[in-house]
Amino acid sequence: MIAKELTVSNAAGFHVRDASLVCKAAMKYSSKLTLAKNGYKADCKSCLDLLTLMAPQGTVLTLNAEGDDEEQAAEAIKELFDRKFYEDEFAASAPADL
User: Fold this and answer.
1) Is 34 in contact with 64 (CB distance < 8 Å)?
2) What's the rounded mean pLDDT across residues 77-82?
3) Pairing outcome for strands 2-7 and 60-66
4) Residues carrying an active site annotation
5) Of 57, 60, 63, 68, which one's alpha carbon is 20 to 30 angstroms from that of 9?
6) What per-residue confidence (pLDDT) applies to 89?
7) pLDDT > 70? residue 96
8) Per-domain residue ranges for the chain?
9) Strand 40-43 to strand 2-7: parallel, antiparallel, or no bridges (unpaired)?
């Protein structure tokens, strides 16, 4: 089992688009993946479960990965957090009148 602490560093916090990206990434792996906050564990393969974390910028979440491909799965989720869920790239490509 792998456990990593991940910090929500994007300005918008952990929201619907981010939960969708985590869920999409998690579904590629057979390992059980959870994100935990204050004792509550959310299944990374459930967008609705992830949204219940209510994690604004600065929140530290614990990622737990367990299974045959746990290292690759944990790294994929960690990369999303490290890249701020591509917030900067997404904002740059959005139309100016939004």
Assistant:
1) yes
2) 97
3) antiparallel
4) 15
5) 68
6) 72
7) no
8) 2-93
9) unpaired
Angle at the Cα of 50 from the Cα atoms of 7 and 24, rounded to 5 degrees: 95
Question: Which residues does residue 63 pair with via DSSP β-bridges, in sequence order?
Answer: 4, 35
H runs (alpha helix) in the chain: 16-26, 47-51, 70-82, 87-93
- Among 88, 89, 76, residue whose Cα is nearest residue 6: 76
Q: What is the pLDDT of residues 46-78, one digit of tens each?
A: 999 999 999 999 999 999 999 999 999 999 999
Contact between 7 and 81 (Cβ < 8 Å): yes
What superfamily would CATH give domain 2-93?
A: HPr-like (3.30.1340.10)
Residue pair 86/20 in contact (Cβ under 8 Å)? The answer is no
Q: What are phi and psi of 64, to 5 degrees?
A: -115, 130
pLDDT at 91 over 60: no
